[in-house]
Input
Amino acid sequence: MKEIRFNEPFVTGGEIKYLEEVVASGSFAGNGEFSKRAQSLLAERYQVPHVLLTHSCTAALEITALVYDLGPGDEVILPSYTFVSTASAFLRTGAKLVFCEIDPATMTVDVADIANRITDRTRVIAPIHYAGVGADMTALEKLAAERNVHLVEDAAQGLDATHNGRALGTIGELASFSFHETKNLHCGLGGALFINNPDLFDKAEDIWERGTNRTKMFRGLVDKYRWVELGSSFYPTEFQAAFLLSQLEHIDDCTAGRRPIFETYRQRLEPLVDRGLLSLQTLNPENKHNYHACFAKFNTPEDCERVRLHLVSKKIHAYIGYVPLHSSPMGRQLGYQACDLPITEEYSQRVLRFPLHHRMEADDAHRIVDEIESVL
Ligand SMILES: *Cc1c(COP(=O)(O)O)cnc(C)c1O
Output
């Protein structure tokens, strides 16, 4: 019985050559040649004014929270159905987390629910793009402009996907990406901050450089560098940047490798949807996928667990969706209750994500759906 892992990190074969160049260059600590090349590649491909590499998406989110000088009394609206870093980055500043519901069709934020939660203390709205499908950025952009709040994107899963023809991560003022090995492209652990509002660049860059204006000294703008912001050590080494550059140069290969697996899943699962056994993420025509993840929503949490255990017994590693943040131990400690977000609470227990990576064959996806079918 062949084991099918949930994820196998993408490898291009070009990484070693660039790593050797780092060693030969004698420049290791970051913000060097390879970092700049990776940043330029991203900025040019997606037409972004400024890109800063970070050591993780978590770091890019933390810079975001620091840029807006958030503190006690400020509110940030975000989904509870997300990775912990979307929340912790903002909570760290003392701001209040206001969790919103998701639309079960897409499992991305429910914009009408966000509108209801905006108060005169709301400063930031932070949606995520789940599984490679954009949140409704058109509606969010309009809402943010009308209510005068900042819109940012947790685009950790959104690289190279689009919404109405615009790349995810280029719509909000700031957007965070992850290059963790579980994402489509990676450098072990890494990330990037897209700065779409150029007015925020100087401050974001100082925060990124440990709170100093050292990059301005390199550009000859100041004679010596000084402490100017509350920052931290947010960027990756040249090793990660070099590895990442090779990955970024093969982004189209990566997407092309994932697509047939994703499409096989969808084609084979559709008949199960028609039979009422499960449902799939709605793919609206305005969203172009990056095939980051494929998941099903089962009719009950029990069905979901039954399928998961069966797949594991066949050496097929499927994973559950997010455990909602508001009802997690930390969420409860902060005073939230499970009943605050009934839709999130219910649907999060029915999600199962299937293996999806470039080493899989279409046959593997066929086998997985056969097994799902056999349990249901
Ligand atoms: C993966 C992920 C993160 C965290 O990324 P790191 O690079 O591991 O910090 C944050 N948000 C979302 C939505 C993610 O999927």
